[in-house]
């Protein structure tokens, strides 16, 4: 094997090298276009082309050059792929257009360091081969779920949520899909370089995806489907937290729900009640009585003030939460993963001049994190694993909550990003979580995209966006567990680590080869 890796290095040295500026520009553009492989565009083939171009640009490059090439790729990926942040920062954050773009650029520079470090390690310590590039890619996607609390967005595996390679999701999760995508992308480059033996593993991976799709890990329970109604109030974000609009918000949701009492479950979205439970207890009691009279479970998003914990801590403990009330229904879930600049402002004192309008928004002022060992909501003898908004972007968090559930439920408010790709990217992640865990996902949102997603990750029904709507569905409870639910990300991470250990052990004596720059 050492001979094989030495041959790869020699082949790379013999190839003609482009001026540094060209691979940097190519990588910048290829990173920028990756988001178009995701929702709402769905050009899945870009998910192969984009990393293939990066892989090709790294050929013959020193580790320092690879760092800059990777940084360019990462900057393009995050600046374009997460530009939906502009709406929340500029429109709702009352920040100037120029400063908003600058903040997104800074974010892209910081997040781009993930790819920069990835490509630096690749060229510094490992031989040039898909068998080291793909596992490094997986490890750095995984790192984005926990470094500095994580920003787990724009994973390449999401491009195949409903097509071709998604059969790997119930086995190895989104990181397993990403691994296969990157390996195939690199294999294309190798094949174009006349290393035709890469046709064999590529064919095996494609056949494996087909075979994995034939496996059945879960099946419906032999019982009556759960009748569910989702309420989409379409409350504008700039009005949502105004004191004078609170009563009207409650009236909108109550009126939309009037015809739905009597169904098994009614779900209102995140923070559809824009007041703490301590300020609106009579309304909650009245809704609970109505739900019990009609045999309905009622689930709603609500800010929750934990008075007991506040006394113990000596300071207010506020939570973004979901509460279940009504007939045979109980439970309270407190959000575990909070959104920076969405639910709290990091270094808020220092940044008060940057985001002045958000400083007085109750949704932004100091929410606390919920515990990691919370119980699922209980509705009509069913367990519902809850996730609030951004939390569904974390594969292992959703997996852990789903392990003892019949359904998955998520509530969200994507009004912050109305008219952008953000809500559609978010929905695509919900689809992947449903596929990974083999459970129906119930998704209620304020402005969209409200939807029912089956255990295969397919959207069965969705409400129109940016308008008031009621979405009804009859959902079967599922039983059984996927391999991913049982084993989490450890199989793909372990396999990736093994490949990297082998690559490091059999690497040429000096992988980071220095090349003379062109005059």
Automatic annotation (TrEMBL):
<keyword id="KW-1133">Transmembrane helix</keyword>
<dbReference type="GO" id="GO:0016410">
    <property type="term" value="F:N-acyltransferase activity"/>
</dbReference>
<feature type="domain" description="CN hydrolase">
    <location>
        <begin position="231"/>
        <end position="477"/>
    </location>
</feature>
<feature type="transmembrane region" description="Helical">
    <location>
        <begin position="490"/>
        <end position="506"/>
    </location>
</feature>
<dbReference type="GO" id="GO:0042158">
    <property type="term" value="P:lipoprotein biosynthetic process"/>
</dbReference>
<keyword id="KW-0449">Lipoprotein</keyword>
<feature type="transmembrane region" description="Helical">
    <location>
        <begin position="20"/>
        <end position="36"/>
    </location>
</feature>
<comment type="pathway">
    <text>Protein modification; lipoprotein biosynthesis (N-acyl transfer).</text>
</comment>
<keyword id="KW-0012">Acyltransferase</keyword>
<feature type="transmembrane region" description="Helical">
    <location>
        <begin position="134"/>
        <end position="156"/>
    </location>
</feature>
<dbReference type="Pfam" id="PF20154">
    <property type="entry name" value="LNT_N"/>
</dbReference>
<comment type="function">
    <text>Catalyzes the phospholipid dependent N-acylation of the N-terminal cysteine of apolipoprotein, the last step in lipoprotein maturation.</text>
</comment>
<keyword id="KW-0472">Membrane</keyword>
<feature type="transmembrane region" description="Helical">
    <location>
        <begin position="65"/>
        <end position="86"/>
    </location>
</feature>
<feature type="transmembrane region" description="Helical">
    <location>
        <begin position="196"/>
        <end position="217"/>
    </location>
</feature>
<keyword id="KW-0812">Transmembrane</keyword>
<dbReference type="InterPro" id="IPR004563">
    <property type="entry name" value="Apolipo_AcylTrfase"/>
</dbReference>
<keyword id="KW-0808">Transferase</keyword>
<dbReference type="GO" id="GO:0005886">
    <property type="term" value="C:plasma membrane"/>
</dbReference>
<dbReference type="InterPro" id="IPR045378">
    <property type="entry name" value="LNT_N"/>
</dbReference>
<feature type="transmembrane region" description="Helical">
    <location>
        <begin position="168"/>
        <end position="189"/>
    </location>
</feature>
<dbReference type="InterPro" id="IPR003010">
    <property type="entry name" value="C-N_Hydrolase"/>
</dbReference>
<dbReference type="InterPro" id="IPR036526">
    <property type="entry name" value="C-N_Hydrolase_sf"/>
</dbReference>
<dbReference type="Pfam" id="PF00795">
    <property type="entry name" value="CN_hydrolase"/>
</dbReference>
<protein>
    <recommendedName>
        <fullName>Apolipoprotein N-acyltransferase</fullName>
        <ecNumber>2.3.1.269</ecNumber>
    </recommendedName>
</protein>
<keyword id="KW-1003">Cell membrane</keyword>
<comment type="similarity">
    <text>Belongs to the CN hydrolase family. Apolipoprotein N-acyltransferase subfamily.</text>
</comment>
<feature type="transmembrane region" description="Helical">
    <location>
        <begin position="98"/>
        <end position="122"/>
    </location>
</feature>
<feature type="transmembrane region" description="Helical">
    <location>
        <begin position="42"/>
        <end position="58"/>
    </location>
</feature>
């Amino acid at each position: 094997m050492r001979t094989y890796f030495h041959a790869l290095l020699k082949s790379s040295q013999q190839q003609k090298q482009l001026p540094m500026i060209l691979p940097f520009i190519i990588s910048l553009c290829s990173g920028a276009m990756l988001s178009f492989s995701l929702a709402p565009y769905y050009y899945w083939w870009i998910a192969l082309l984009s990393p293939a171009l990066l892989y090709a640009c790294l050929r013959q490059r020193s580790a320092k050059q690879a760092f800059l090439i990777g940084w360019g790729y990462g900057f393009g990926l995050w600046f374009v792929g997460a530009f939906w942040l502009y709406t929340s920062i500029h429109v709702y954050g009352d920040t100037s257009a120029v400063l908003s773009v600058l903040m997104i650029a800074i974010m892209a520079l910081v997040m781009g360091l993930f790819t920069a470090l990835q490509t630096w390690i690749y060229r510094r310590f490992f031989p040039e081969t898909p068998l080291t590039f793909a596992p490094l890619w997986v490890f750095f996607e995984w790192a984005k779920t926990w470094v500095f609390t994580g920003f787990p967005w724009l994973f390449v595996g999401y491009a195949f949520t409903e097509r071709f390679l998604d059969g790997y999701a119930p086995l190895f999760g989104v990181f397993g899909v990403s691994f296969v995508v990157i390996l195939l992308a690199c294999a294309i480059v190798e094949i174009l370089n006349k290393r035709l033996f890469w046709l064999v593993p590529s064919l095996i991976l494609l056949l494996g995806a087909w075979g994995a799709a034939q496996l059945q890990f879960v099946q419906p329970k032999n019982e009556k489907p759960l009748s569910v109604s989702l309420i989409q109030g379409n409350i504008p974000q700039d009005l949502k937290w105004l004191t004078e609009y609170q009563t009207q918000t409650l009236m909108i949701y109550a009126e939309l729900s009037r015809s739905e009492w009597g169904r098994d479950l009614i779900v209102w979205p995140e923070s559809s009640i824009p007041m703490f439970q301590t300020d609106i207890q009579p309304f909650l009691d009245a809704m609970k009585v109505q739900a019990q009279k009609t045999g309905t479970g009622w689930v709603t998003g609500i800010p929750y003030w934990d008075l007991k914990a506040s006394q113990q801590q000596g300071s207010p403990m506020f939570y973004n939460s979901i509460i279940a009330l009504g007939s045979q229904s109980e439970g309270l879930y407190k959000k575990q993963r909070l959104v920076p600049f969405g639910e709290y402002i990091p270094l808020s004192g220092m940044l008060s001049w940057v985001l002045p309008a958000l400083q007085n928004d109750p949704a932004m002022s100091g929410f606390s994190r919920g515990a990691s060992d919370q119980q699922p909501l209980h509705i009509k003898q069913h367990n519902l694993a809850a996730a609030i908004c951004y939390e569904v972007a974390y594969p292992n968090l959703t997996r852990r909550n789903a392990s003892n559930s019949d359904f998955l439920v998520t509530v969200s408010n994507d009004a912050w990003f109305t008219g952008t790709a953000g809500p559609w990217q978010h929905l695509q992640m919900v689809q992947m979580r449903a596929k990974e865990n083999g459970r129906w996902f119930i998704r209620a949102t304020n402005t969209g995209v409200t939807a029912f997603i089956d255990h295969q990750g397919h959207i069965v029904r969705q409400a129109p966006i940016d308008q008031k709507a009621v979405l009804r569905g009859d959902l079967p409870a599922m039983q059984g567990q996927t391999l991913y639910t049982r084993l989490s990300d450890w199989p793909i991470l372990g396999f990736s680590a093994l490949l990297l250990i082998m690559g490091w052990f059999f690497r040429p004596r000096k992988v980071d080869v220095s090349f003379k720059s062109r005059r």
